[in-house]
Inverse folding.
DNA sequence: GCTACTGCCTACAGCCACTGTAGGTTCAAT
DNA sequence: ATTGAACCTACAGTGGCTGTAGGCAGTAGC
């Protein structure tokens, strides 16, 4: 590929729709090291760097964590090997997304029920507070399924 | 309510299925201040404290952020006022959950398509990498809908 | 060559909701 | 009086950025 490195960090960031700091963060994480620096120390990116960044950005939009993207980039460099590992990463990620959807749907149903049952009276009679205060009023046993109740909030 | 404060932090944490540090964190956040301390400085929680913690835990399981829970607790203390504000918080949260579900479903569809189209050959021909490398191959324009591409990863 | 200005540099703090660690103190039982 | 578990405070780390402070590099006009 071309070894000319002409893009500044600001130009590349603008092109990718990312912040300049994000590119520096990716560099720190080992995802994208600029192919050159000026004598004064400023980063210069080549067209190959730009393609690599677009791959990274797209993978992030797909929700792949940075660690997975690092793996994907490493595997992508070994063109002759079978792509089973890449598929496995993608499949695992899809399954994780499905799991989150499942959890969120249960949550949505509970929230919906809670909201729709509230008659709109005074706070002392509020159905929302009642449900939040008493676990028995829930249909689902959220926070006991899966590994961490923590997941529900992130998801 | 009872003003006897007999539970240690470890006992209450165990009862609620939370870590001791989490209770101290909630205290720092102003959600749950123990109603007493021993002369030696150890926290002691009353039955009212325990009820408050169970409310907090349950609200967290519902995915309410700590700031919202602080509001809910404040509103819950004003029994005579109308519960419209509480309903609004719950409804807003439900809508946010719905939004995340929508985004995740689009994501899942893309991931699924990507995975199912891969023929299982070599890395150079991998459909997964191809899609990640070229935005044009996507059906959805993720990362351009909503405010931040950042959302997709959190969700 | 000088100045002004923008954009770049490093290093570090902050976000959220915890979790984990280090180093020391208190409590209850023996 | 001594042990040992549980407690205390204070701080660092998680992920994926974002924002700030204080200074240097590069370019355009004079």
């Amino acid at each position: 590929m071309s070894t000319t490195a002409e893009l500044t960090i600001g130009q590349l960031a603008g092109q990718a729709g990312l912040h300049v700091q994000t590119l520096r963060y990716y560099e720190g994480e080992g995802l994208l090291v600029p192919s050159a620096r000026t004598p004064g120390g400023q980063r210069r990116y080549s067209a190959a760097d730009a393609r690599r960044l677009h791959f990274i950005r797209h993978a992030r939009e797909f929700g792949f964590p940075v660690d997975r993207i690092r793996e994907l980039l490493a595997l992508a460099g070994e063109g002759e090997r079978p792509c089973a590992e890449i598929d496995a990463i993608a499949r695992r990620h899809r399954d994780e997304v499905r799991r989150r959807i499942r959890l969120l749907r249960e949550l949505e149903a509970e929230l919906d029920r809670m909201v729709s049952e509230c008659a709109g009276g005074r706070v002392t009679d509020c159905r929302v507070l009642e449900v939040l205060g008493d676990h028995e009023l829930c249909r689902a046993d959220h926070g006991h399924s899966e590994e961490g109740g923590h997941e529900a909030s992130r998801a």
